[in-house]
Amino acid sequence: MSDASTTVEAPSTAQKLTAEFIGTFILVFGVIGTVLFAAGFSGGEGGLNVGFLGVSLALGLTVVVGAYAFGPISGGHFNPAVSIGLAVAGKFSWKAVGPYIAVQILGGILATTVLLGILSAGPLFDIAKFTGASTGYDELSPGGYGLGSVFLIETVATAIFLFVILGVTSSRAAVGFAPLAIGLTLTLLALIAIPVSNASFNPARSIATALYGGGIAWSQLWVSIVAPILGAVIAALIYKLVFDRSKQLAA
């Protein structure tokens, strides 16, 4: 009878990247699928009319299931801004940031491509629905908000999101509840931000919808890339300076 304990090997780089790819696919497929087929406010016809609340819940739920499924493998980022923010905070390797961002973007693009295929076989096919699902200001803002409002809410909301991620994944946090806290935070933030910016907080999600959203979506895409990354960096720097002082205390 052997008393040798079972060891679990650390995930390989390929496993981590695959997990990020699938996790981002699930996130974009769930959120944008809800916008296209169930929300009722995008395109002006059909849908189950779940509205902003339904899309917010879809965002939170996709992150919860993705984080529980793939968090133990890749960390469950599914978002370039999160990967960059965690690297700034010293919680993630800078060498892995580039590959993570690449597969996150590809996973999001695959999701919207699959959704386009589903939409194209429907009775009311209109690729302009992807314009309505894209993030941005003025024409792309559901509430007609301008550039300043959209930039501010995307920056602040992503900063709050990263603060929560860093807090619930720290050594002081309760074990096993991080995905729930992160998902619920996204739901809350989306409820606030969807009327303003269509709630990005995630460059991969915005790139995926802009791909089929037309010229206006492409021209405004920079906001949904720059603002979330800026917010994540600000939160990471503040967290590192104010809360993550374990090395100084040990000294």
- Total DSSP E strands: 0
CATH architecture: Up-down Bundle
What CATH first level would be assigned? Answer: Mainly Alpha
Mean pLDDT: 90
Q: At the third CATH level, what is the topology name?
A: Glycerol uptake facilitator protein
Q: Per DSSP, what share of the residues sits in E-state strands of 2 or more residues?
A: under 5%
Contiguous runs where pLDDT drops below 50 for at least 5 residues: none
Please give the share of residues in helix.
Answer: over 70%
Q: What sort of overall outline do the alpha carbons produce when their principal axes are compared?
A: globular
In CATH terms, the superfamily is Glycerol uptake facilitator protein
Order of helices and strands: HHHHHHHHHH
Overall structural domain count: 1
Q: What's the total helix number?
A: 10
- In terms of quaternary structure, the protein is single chain
Largest sheet, strands/sense/barrel: none
| Rg from alpha-carbon coordinates | 19 Å
Helix-and-strand structural type: mainly alpha
Subcellular location: Membrane
Membrane topology: Multi-pass membrane protein
Main location: membrane
Protein name: Aquaporin Z
Q: How would you characterize the overall build of this protein?
A:
- The chain has 251 residues and is an all-alpha fold.
- It has a single domain, classed as Glycerol uptake facilitator protein (Up-down Bundle).
- It is 70% helix and 0% strand.
- It is globular.
